[in-house]
Amino acid sequence: MTSYQEVFERKEVKCRLDAAQRHAMLTAIERRMAVDDYGTTSIVSRYFDTPDRALIERSLDKPLYKEKLRVRSYGILGEDDQVFVELKKKYQGIVYKRRVGCSYAAARAYMGSMPYEQACREFPLPDPILAEASLSPRSLQIAREIDAFKERYAPLRASMVTICDRTAYVPLAIGGEGKATGVPSTLRITFDENVAYRDLFEEALIARASHRRPPVGFGMPRPLLSADEAIMEVKCAGPFPLWLVDALGGCEAYPSSFSKYGAAYQASMRKAS
Prior knowledge:
Elements: E1 7-17, H1 19-29, E2 33-49, H2 54-60, E3 65-74, E4 82-91, E5 94-103, H3 104-112, H4 116-122, H5 128-134, H6 137-152, E6 157-171, E7 188-199, H7 200-210, E8 222-223, E9 230-236, H8 242-250, H9 260-272
Antiparallel strand pairs: 1-5, 1-9, 2-3, 2-6, 3-4, 4-5, 6-7, 7-8, 7-9
Helix pairs in contact: 1-8, 3-4
């Protein structure tokens, strides 16, 4: 048994909020939900794609079914720190996510050419429980699914990095003084701020062209949102509670198809044109 969740199946809705909408939503949830144990966390996601970026091109066409592969890390990252290799699929509005946890060094080797099991054994996590979990039967099964994805779209390359500061809210503890009513146990609401990106394809071209001296600002993240904006994601295994629906409607926070990778790709294409 692993110490982290490997498989997710839930409805996810994203809303792009201005400062007033964000304040209204935080007010609506403050007596029902609280910040989780991690507080505000920096999240870095590295997306993989074909050389012509066929995966994100198809995703932007909004098909009924789409899938993506990424390596996600939390906080300041070292070689031995745990990261997640995630296969994320979406079908008719339902998100299915399967992931394996391993060291950053193992993830880099695995996303190169090394088999997953070998990578985990050569670059194990320092925590023996997490190291064992990375090689559990469930993790090895998920790794085989990721292998199938890699083979289907080969060759895959690191395409884009997205960065954000995330604050996640979960239901208040049941039975406590602040007992939450009308809050499904699977409900999770996150607010992403300072959303930025790096185009790794562009950086590779610049690095080859500039030889020893890259230009000023090379490798620096570029913002995707204005300073007062945030992306709110509402995630739940079942229907949203009525109070949440009312709160969303009250501040006119409507669902958006905002994808960090998609928005980064479009921003990069505009910059290049």
